[in-house]
């Protein structure tokens, strides 16, 4: 084996305390990437009030999402080729530069452009976290850190809107971007001083053609899911053209990956049954989770009369359940080395939770909906980190970066499709129900009304809207349950491949040589 392809754990051999400090720094960086959109979302009304440009509001989020998705695979490959530490530190710096520039924006056009810079950095943050953990911690031991990752996700979803509102009210909206600087500085300092990974040097050239084709393809897909049914009709010329561009670009990308020495996403990683299955399950988990995060607060605010101020707290039953289950699954995986049962249980619970949520109507109590959310959260807890763990364990160590970026990309694309398709179904159902009850003028242009608008409606119209939202939620979650069936079935085909680090190496295996774990389909 070449010198630069040795086991990172053997080369770096970090002390346990150093690993814990590095993991803490990585969790801070992960929090940066996840917290940003939550905080900024709360500040958007104030931003629009000062900068104007309401018609371009959606692009503040879309630009960030596009840049994150498009850059994710490229960051993973750069880490594999030139070393993860340098790539990760560069991603943090780019993210912080984008944060400073966004806070200094003087108009909506500048803000959109600077958010794209932020998104470029964010793409490297998530991939860097997962790949570095994959380098430092053997898969068998990685389960111990699953709870930390789930906790970061819960903190971001619950605390983001609260922090965003507080910062905007007391410091101004610009500080919703500047708040990233102290967190980023801490992560930079800790990673620079404590993280020690082998430096890599390679004469291979970056696959620029593949990077361009993949970027164009992902951009087209995200724009289709963002604009379809909102900015443009699904059968409009613009959407059809974007679909054609996306299909052509991704087809060209797949073809190009078989012709270059250092492809952005080596196709051989998909020969692993487990990696392919984890990509599918990760896509479906992203589809379901972000759809749930969007529609559950909307249902509880519109139908159950909950306050919009603490919208993150509305997800507490789901997030706490996900956190606890993720920690338990991680500990069991570490102690036993077994994991195949978790995607199966997770897929079943996710399917059951979504079906239960689809039964909610105008008379469903908060306790009942909270229990349904807990079932869904438990399913997500079994899936969210296990998918990354198995994906990383399914490839050779030299492909850790592209495996991490591939799994992250599929989850990101799943969330984009989930929000778009479930959103289109929800909006169509709400508008149809309101039209049937003579209140279509209330929901023209949007199927979502804020609390202030709801309070001003006559009782009869408000009741009709509550019924329409419940009906839309039913349709969206029923679709989610149908999609979850695919993930549940896919989980049965996962093969129990021993986790690296799971017990002593075979007696005839050379010392320090990683076993080959790739299983062909």
TrEMBL record:
It is a multi-pass membrane protein. It comes from Streptomyces lunaelactis. Keywords: Cell membrane, Membrane, Transmembrane, Transmembrane helix, Transport. It is found in: Cell membrane. The lineage of its organism: Bacteria, Bacillati, Actinomycetota, Actinomycetes, Kitasatosporales. The keyword Transmembrane applies. This is MFS transporter. PANTHER family: COMD, MAJOR FACILITATOR SUPERFAMILY. The keyword Glycoprotein does not apply. One of its GO terms (molecular function) is transmembrane transporter activity. Residues 22-499 form the Major facilitator superfamily (MFS) profile domain.
């Amino acid at each position: 084996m070449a010198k630069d392809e040795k086991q990172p754990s053997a080369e770096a051999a970090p002390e346990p305390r150093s690993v814990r400090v590095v993991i803490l720094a990585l969790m801070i960086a992960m929090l940066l990437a996840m917290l940003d959109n939550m905080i900024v979302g709360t500040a958007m009304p104030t931003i629009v009030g000062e900068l104007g440009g309401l018609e371009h509001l959606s692009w503040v989020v879309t630009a960030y999402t596009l840049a994150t998705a498009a850059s994710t695979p490229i960051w993973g490959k750069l880490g594999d080729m030139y070393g993860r530490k340098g790539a990760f530190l560069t991603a943090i710096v780019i993210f912080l530069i984008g944060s400073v520039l966004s806070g200094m924006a003087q108009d909506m056009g500048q803000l959109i452009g600077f958010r794209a810079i932020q998104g470029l950095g964010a793409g490297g943050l998530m991939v860097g976290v997962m790949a570095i953990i994959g380098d430092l911690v053997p898969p068998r031991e990685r389960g111990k850190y699953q709870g930390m990752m789930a906790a970061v996700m819960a903190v971001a979803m619950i605390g983001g809107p609260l922090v965003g509102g507080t910062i905007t009210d007391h410091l101004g909206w610009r500080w919703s971007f500047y708040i990233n600087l102290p967190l980023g500085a801490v992560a930079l300092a800790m990673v620079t001083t404590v993280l020690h990974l082998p430096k890599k040097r390679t004469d291979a050239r970056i696959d620029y053609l593949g990077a361009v084709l993949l970027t164009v393809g992902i951009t087209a897909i995200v724009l289709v899911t963002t604009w379809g049914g909102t900015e443009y009709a699904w059968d409009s010329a613009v959407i059809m053209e974007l679909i054609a561009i996306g299909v052509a670009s991704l087809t060209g990308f797949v073809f190009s990956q078989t012709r270059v020495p250092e492809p952005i996403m080596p196709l051989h990683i998909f020969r692993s049954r487990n990696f392919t299955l984890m990509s599918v399950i990760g896509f479906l988990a992203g589809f379901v989770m972000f759809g749930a995060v969007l529609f559950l607060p909307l249902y509880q605010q519109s139908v159950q009369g909950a306050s919009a101020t603490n919208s993150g707290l509305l997800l507490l039953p789901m997030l706490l359940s996900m956190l606890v289950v993720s920690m338990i699954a991680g500990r069991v995986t570490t102690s036993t080395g077994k994991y195949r049962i978790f995607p199966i249980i997770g897929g079943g619970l996710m399917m059951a939770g979504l079906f239960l949520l689809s039964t909610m109507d105008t008379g469903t109590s908060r306790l009942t909906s909270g229990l349904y959310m807990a079932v869904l959260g438990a399913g997500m807890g079994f899936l969210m980190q296990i998918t990354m763990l198995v994906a990383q364990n399914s490839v050779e160590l030299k492909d850790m970066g592209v495996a991490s970026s591939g799994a992250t990309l599929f989850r990101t694309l799943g969330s984009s499709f989930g929000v778009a398709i479930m959103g289109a179904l929800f909006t169509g159902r709400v508008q149809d129900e309101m039209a049937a009850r003579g209140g279509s003028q209330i929901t023209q242009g949007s199927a979502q009304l804020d609390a202030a608008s709801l309070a001003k409606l006559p009782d009869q119209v408000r009741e009709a809207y509550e019924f329409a939202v419940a009906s839309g939620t039913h349709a969206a979650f029923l679709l989610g349950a149908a999609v979850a069936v695919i993930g549940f079935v896919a989980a049965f085909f996962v093969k129990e491949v021993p986790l690296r680090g799971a017990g002593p190496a075979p007696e005839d295996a050379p010392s320090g040589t990683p076993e080959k774990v790739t299983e062909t389909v």
